[in-house]
Amino acid sequence: MAERVTFPSATGPALAGLIDLPEGPVRGWGVFSHGFTLGKDSPAAARICKQLAADGIGMLRFDALGLGGSEGDWGDGSFTCKVNDVIAACQFMTARGTPADLLVGHSWGGAAVLACARDCAGVRAVVTVGAPFDPTHVEHQYDACLDQVFAEGSGQWMVGGRTLTLKRAFVEDVRRAKLDDKIKGLRLPLLILHSPTDNTVGIENASEIFRTARHPRSFVSLEGSEHLLTGPGQAKRAGRIIGAWADAYLR
């Protein structure tokens, strides 16, 4: 069972979200941050959150600015906007009486939860799934239009059958983002999930995050999975691992 919600983004436009409600006794609540241009209904987001709900952990997943059902223009976003919108999502969960214990981020969303976890009041544990150590890892997806972006201020970028506008401010914001100090200063339990056969975000990213983080930190290999977790049972398996690991940190 799921509840459709909307809440204001950090910059104003409303964000569309879905709360996968726990089936049975409530163990806790969390917020999920999806990958770069994926959305709340991507396989990783939907299937992990549904599995966690089945395990008693209610999860809010939401579309980033300008994606899916959310208002605004994707091109007006940035890594900073994504980070601040995760914080806004946690504030929304607190306001409805279900404060988030857990932050889960897939791919670029994993980088975002690492960046903002300490600013999300009440969060007790953090999980990354296939996350990059450096947010600029996404540049390889739009590098073909970077010359136009820096020459004209923006450029058109085709992704997933749609056209997005990439703006110079977006690129510069991503390049300024650094996670080293955020990871070192996390001071929260961290679970890193990553596949050694991930051809989009290499396993070395998990190694860097683990090496930079301080205990308590855990790494679990999602062997046999690909980056988007679209294969049979891949996302559900990740959800089961997260649910078991999080048990010690839920209120």
What is the correct CATH architecture?
Answer: 3-Layer(aba) Sandwich
How many distinct domains? 1
The helix/strand series, from N terminus to C terminus, equals: EEEHEHEHEHHEEHHEHEH
**CATH hierarchy, class:** Alpha Beta
Calculate the mean pLDDT score and round it: 95
Number of helices: 9
Q: Major β-sheet, in short?
A: 8 strands, mixed
Give the strand tally. Answer: 10
* Structural class determined from secondary elements: alpha/beta
Helix content: 25-40%
Quick structural gist:
The protein has nine helices and ten strands. The chain is an alpha/beta fold and 251 residues long. It has an eight-stranded mixed sheet with strand order 1-2-4-3-5-6-9-10, with helices on both faces.
Give your account of this protein's structure.
This is Osmotically inducible protein OsmC. Residues 29-150 form the Serine aminopeptidase S33 domain. One of its GO terms (molecular function) is carboxylic ester hydrolase activity. InterPro entries: AB_hydrolase_Est10, AB_hydrolase_fold, Hydrolase_4. This protein has helices spanning 43-54, 79-95, 108-116, 139-142, 146-152, 168-176, 180-184, 204-212, 234-246, and strands at 2-8, 14-20, 28-33, 57-62, 102-106, 125-129, 154-159, 162-167, 190-194, 217-221. It is α/β, with parallel strands linked by helices. It has a single domain (2-136, 178-249), classed as Rossmann fold. The strands form 2 sheets. The protein has an 8-stranded mixed beta sheet, sandwiched between helices. The chain has a two-stranded antiparallel sheet with strand order 7-8. Helix 8 links the parallel strand 9 (190-194) and strand 10. Helix 1 (43-54) crosses helix 9 (234-246) and helix 2 (79-95) packs across helix 3 (108-116). The chain is globular and about 55 Å long. The two termini are 22 Å apart. 49% of the residues are buried. The model has no long low-confidence stretch (mean pLDDT 95).
